[in-house]
Structures
1.
Amino acid sequence: MYEFAPVLGSTVDRGIRPVLRFVHVALGLSPDQVTWAAFWVSAAAAAVFATGRVIPALVLMGVGQVLDALDGGIAREFGLVSAAGHRLDTRLDRASEIVIFLSCAVGGLVSFRLAALASVAVLLLTTIVDRSKLDPGMKRFALYFGIWLPYPLIFTIIFVVNLAAYVVGLLIIDCRFQRDMDALGGDLNTVASRAARLGTP
């Protein structure tokens, strides 16, 4: 959850260390198990969104996001960070968001078109975020503002912000690639192939 702000992640982890130890040591839950728990709670929130009951849905969604914060904290605290865990967390986060977005449409809070556009923009950003390191975080969190703002406006903002971050992220990746090419020197074919290898995660 804090891949793009490690200092913030470390600070939060220190603050909730007793909770992390309780979940992992006392309850015996692994980071992956907590990730799955976060997903199922988010799926329950989506089911409630589909009925149009916003406040209970937001409460459940909040519980899911708290669990989502714990999985990474446990992984960092106990040296369990892995690429596979990161992939699982990312995939289930996106699945949670999409099912919640579509459930908001089912519940009549927003049109299916806007829910689908927001989902596509989030998925596009996800394809490059590990390389661009740019993620505005404007996804599920924005839904809490539905208490005060109309959901069509919120989903429009989610779509625009994530699509803009995707475009800017592509520019960031391209600039880094060009910088690597300039630093390598040599003929174009050699430079391009070597720069591409450097940019491969």
2.
Amino acid sequence: MQFEDILVAVEEPIAVVTFNRPAVLNALRTHLLKEFSLALAELANNDGVRAIVVTGAGEKAFAAGADIGELNALASAGSGAEQARSGQALTRQIERLSEPVIMAVNGFALGGGCEIAMAGDILIASENAKFGQPEVNLGLIPGYGGTARTTRRVGKGMAMYLCLTGEIIDAREALRIGLVQRVVPAAELMNEARRIATTIASKAPLAIAACKRTINNGAHLSIDDALELEALEFGTLVDTEDIKEGTRAFLEKRKPVWKAK
């Protein structure tokens, strides 16, 4: 896959997508976002890829937000809403992938960069990572899901704090509030992200997809409805070849060979 603004490396059973505009801190212009969406769609159709790692080129940024020139050029409320919906569709695409997405955040993840990171399933940050929703400094609010996902990830109070102040927090604070799951030295970031992705990729792919789906869809349901969803997904897996293989391999003390069937 050849792109202008991103790099895609397929290292089966994982793939690594890199935002590749380091000279502008990997700013998320529309062209980059379209390429990213296309790359995700192509990876989703690759049966050899079972987990995806996303990161940014260079040492300074994962993605330091939207392209400010493009924001300045928005001509009307309608064009602004359409811009937001386009970014939101991309974040929903990430969430709806069957393959887990590990965000390896190196440096700044601000505005749209933070919003894309939050759409991932697992967030790993380097010690020099910074997170924030500084849109109020531009006269805007987060538009790619920042208000909704920050609230769901860290709670209403912290979402209010981050979105209203526009302040930037470091990796340790992001870990403390639950925005990220791991913080590692910068030199170890990609190795750790690949380790986690490879570990997940070694598991039963249908079960991984069902687990991701159940957590995402159940998070906003009542406990009773979430439990029923879990039971239905559990039951669906019982009808697969993989559960027979997984349980048989356990009893035979060998590694399972998954067929995703």
